[in-house]
Every structure is written in structure tokens, then in C-alpha cells.
């Protein structure tokens, strides 16, 4: 996967950096916890050859017993997903997931998703042969793997329409109960974007809906960010390319709900008028579907600090209201590239892969809500911090918010420099 594809996915590397005006104040507390999470282990691909971007995507089961890590550039961009299972206080490599039809350039595992119980994993492969099954038509696919008797087996291959060079599978999501999958293609229809809903019935997956924004337009990149509630009834989809009448690239997120088995758009979420910066580059939703977190990877000024911001929206009496807007407080420059939220919506992890303490070494930030106020609990960096590791490219948290994963695709395990690492904090 080349750098342009990677930046299309997460929209990291904004053209400006800065602290969002008013991000402190009443929306976020100032003091970090005196007992921040500690790094407890580091996951690596081992000594095998061919790994290049291990940690590009990460996924974590609700109880933190199962970890899945991607490397879509392994073996000439064939790609693979790595499953780790907890054993005592550590996680051990269990199995590598590679579809049988994967080949060079397939970019398997460019996106990942995992069910709450850790028994179902979705692996996106946006450059593999899709609906027509021909190697020249790389319109993308997604694969569902399930664990049974300690072994992972492929259950399904999901595809969309056979349009060459689309990006089906570049972003994926699964409901906590594993009943519903969401696979996006933000490159479809002149980058307007589309997302597909698949539901499981009698051990097979069937496409139930095709979602687009009611006001969708070219270059919106609808589907860049995806998230689904635990029961699969509420979906949030980011579209960072959406433009307002007066400002380019403000971005938006869209909430869809399912009523009587039919999906419809409930609302469009936009940040307040002072918060400009590709809103919707990353999204997350709480387990009950009533709290939505929307990330923007930069702001429209050039002040020093971490670029971008997070908006929190909550549903009350069928209405969605923006209840908080904040950004990390940190030295140096960088931009928000990834985010995730705990099941109850009370813990948020953000990754800033090109931020301090060193050039593109990156950081991650943990925020917690207490008495309706969001507080920056901790700034997380690896013990072996080095330059250009892009620590924070991917993040994941457990259901209770006590375990955090942070991916560093350019990290350097001793046995193979620069192939990537994933750090586990508790």
C-alpha cells in the first residue's frame, strides 16, 4: 500500500497544525491522572520475513482476550492479519489470517474489525479481486473469519459491485454481537462514497442495505470512518470531504438507524462553526448507540500543538446534540489520526502518529468523562520512543477502557528493524 492510499484511509498529515481555539475551558479538564496507564508488553510479527507495516490497524475484543493486528504490506503488499490470544498476563501469537485467493497487491487487512466476544474478525482487502473474481479487476473484498475449537477459518467473502479500482473494504466495522457488518467504499462514485450493510442469517451473510448520505456529493469520501452499536441498530459514518457553503473540507458524520429492518439516515453531525478540519476522518460509537465521537485531523489555523479535535454528540429524546469539543494538550506538533471509545462511551483514545516526542514518533492520548466533564487522563508514549515510528497510527480500547492498544507501523523490533510494533497499556 503506497503512502497516498494510506493517507486516503486515515487522513493523517494535515496541511496545518494547531490547537483548536476554546478546546480547553469547560469541555476538558487540565490535569492528567497521577497514575497513568503503563506499557505492559509489546507485540511484534516475530522473525518472519516480509513484514513491513505491522500495527497499521488494530482490533481488540471487549474483554481484551483477543487482539488482531494488520500488516497490509506484507510480502509485496499481499497482506495478512495476525491473531494474538491472552495467556495469563501476556498475549501469544495464535494464527495468521490470509485468504486463499490473496496475491501480491491485495492489501489484505488494510482494515480490521472484531466482535465483542473475539470470535469473529472482519478483514478488509481493498485491492483484491472483487465481485468478478478476476485478478485484473481490483475492486476490493472483505473476509469474515470465525474461531472454532481454537482455530480460525474463513466463513465468507463479501463483495460489492464490480467496478475496477474502487476501495471496497478499505474500512470495516462489526457490531458487538456479530450480527451486522459494515463495509465501506469511500472511492465509489467519484469519491462520493458508499457503505454496505451485511446481516447474518443461518450462518450466511447477506447484503441488506446500501447507505449513502442524503446530501452526498463528489469527493465527500463517505465511509472513511465507520462504527456500529453493540446490537447493530445504529451506525455512524464519517465523510471528511463534505464541504460547507463557505468553507472547503469541513467534513461531517452521518447517523443511520434501523427500524422494522429498514435503514434510514437519522441525522447529519457537523461541528460548530469554529471547528473546521475534515470532521469525520475517524468516528466511534458507544455500545448503546447513544454517544458518538467524531474526529477531525486538523483545524483551520496554524497554532502550535496537536492539530485536530474531537466532538462528542449525545442522543436525548431522539435528538442529537454536541456536548463537548476538545483536543489533546501536548508539546510539539502533530495531527489526530485515529480514535476509539469504550463500550460505555466514557473513555476515548486518540492517536497522533506524527506528533512529539520526536519527529513522527507519535503519541496517544486518553480522555475520561467524569460528572459530564472530559479530562485528559494521560499522554501515552512507548518506553523505547524513537523517531519516525508513527506511534499512534492505530488505537483500540477494551470494553471497560482499561486496556489500550497503540500501533506503530514503523516501529523497530530487535529481530527485524522497521517492520512495526503494537504496544499494550493498562
Automatic annotation (TrEMBL):
Start-end of Polar residues biased regions: 38-54
Pfam families: FG-GAP_2
Keywords: Glycoprotein, Repeat, Signal
Residue ranges, annotated region (Disordered): 22-54, 402-426
UniProt xrefs under Gene3D superfamilies: Integrin alpha, N-terminal (2.130.10.130)
InterPro entries for this protein: FG-GAP, Gal_Oxase/kelch_b-propeller, Int_alpha_beta-p, Integrin_alpha_N
SUPFAM superfamilies: Galactose oxidase, central domain (SSF50965), Tricorn protease N-terminal domain (SSF69304)
PANTHER family reported for this sequence: GAMMA TUBULIN COMPLEX COMPONENT C-TERMINAL DOMAIN-CONTAINING PROTEIN, UNNAMED PRODUCT
Protein name: PKD domain-containing protein
Organism listed in the record: Halapricum salinum
Amino acid at each position: 500500500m503506497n503512502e497516498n492510499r494510506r493517507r486516503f484511509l486515515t487522513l493523517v498529515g494535515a496541511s496545518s497544525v494547531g490547537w483548536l481555539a476554546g478546546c480547553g475551558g469547560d469541555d476538558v479538564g487540565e490535569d492528567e491522572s497521577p497514575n497513568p496507564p503503563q506499557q505492559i508488553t509489546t507485540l511484534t510479527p516475530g522473525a518472519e520475513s516480509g513484514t513491513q507495516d505491522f500495527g497499521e490497524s488494530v482490533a481488540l475484543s471487549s474483554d481484551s482476550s483477543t487482539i488482531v493486528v494488520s500488516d497490509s504490506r506484507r510480502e509485496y503488499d499481499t497482506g495478512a492479519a495476525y491473531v494474538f490470544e491472552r495467556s495469563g498476563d501476556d498475549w501469544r501469537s495464535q494464527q495468521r489470517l490470509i485468504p486463499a485467493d490473496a496475491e501480491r497487491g491485495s492489501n489484505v487487512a488494510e482494515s480490521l474489525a472484531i466482535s465483542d466476544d473475539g470470535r469473529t474478525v472482519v478483514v478488509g482487502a481493498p485491492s483484491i479481486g472483487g465481485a468478478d473474481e478476476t485478478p485484473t479487476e481490483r475492486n476490493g473484498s472483505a473476509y469474515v473469519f470465525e474461531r472454532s475449537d481454537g482455530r480460525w477459518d474463513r466463513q465468507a467473502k463479501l463483495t460489492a459491485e464490480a467496478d475496477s479500482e474502487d476501495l471496497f473494504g478499505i474500512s470495516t466495522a462489526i457490531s458487538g454481537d456479530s450480527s451486522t457488518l459494515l463495509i465501506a467504499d469511500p472511492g465509489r462514485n467519484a469519491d462520493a462514497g458508499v457503505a454496505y450493510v451485511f446481516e447474518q442469517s443461518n450462518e450466511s451473510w447477506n447484503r441488506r442495505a446500501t447507505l449513502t448520505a442524503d446530501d452526498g456529493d463528489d469527493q465527500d469520501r463517505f465511509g472513511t470512518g465507520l462504527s456500529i452499536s453493540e446490537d447493530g441498530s445504529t451506525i455512524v459514518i464519517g465523510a471528511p470531504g463534505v464541504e460547507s457553503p463557505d468553507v472547503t473540507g469541513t467534513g461531517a458524520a452521518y447517523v443511520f438507524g434501523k427500524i422494522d429492518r429498514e435503514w434510514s439516515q437519522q441525522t447529519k453531525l457537523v461541528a460548530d462553526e469554529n471547528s473546521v478540519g475534515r470532521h469525520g476522518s475517524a468516528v466511534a460509537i458507544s455500545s448503546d448507540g447513544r454517544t458518538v465521537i467524531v474526529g477531525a485531523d486538523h483545524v483551520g489555523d496554524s497554532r502550535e500543538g496537536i492539530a485536530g479535535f474531537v466532538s462528542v454528540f449525545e442522543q436525548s429524546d431522539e435528538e442529537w446534540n454536541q456536548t463537548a469539543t476538545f483536543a489533546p494538550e501536548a508539546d510539539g506538533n502533530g495531527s489526530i489520526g485515529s480514535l476509539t471509545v469504550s463500550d460505555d462511551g466514557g473513555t476515548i483514545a486518540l492517536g497522533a502518529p506524527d506528533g512529539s516526542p520526536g519527529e513522527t514518533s507519535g503519541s496517544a492520548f486518553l480522555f475520561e468523562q467524569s460528572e459530564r466533564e472530559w479530562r485528559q487522563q494521560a499522554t501515552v508514549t512507548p518506553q523505547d520512543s524513537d523517531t519516525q515510528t508513527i506511534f499512534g497510527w492505530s488505537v483500540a480500547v477494551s470494553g471497560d477502557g482499561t486496556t489500550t492498544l497503540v500501533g506503530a507501523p514503523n516501529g523497530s523490533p530487535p529481530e527485524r528493524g522497521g517492520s512495526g510494533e503494537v504496544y499494550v497499556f493498562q
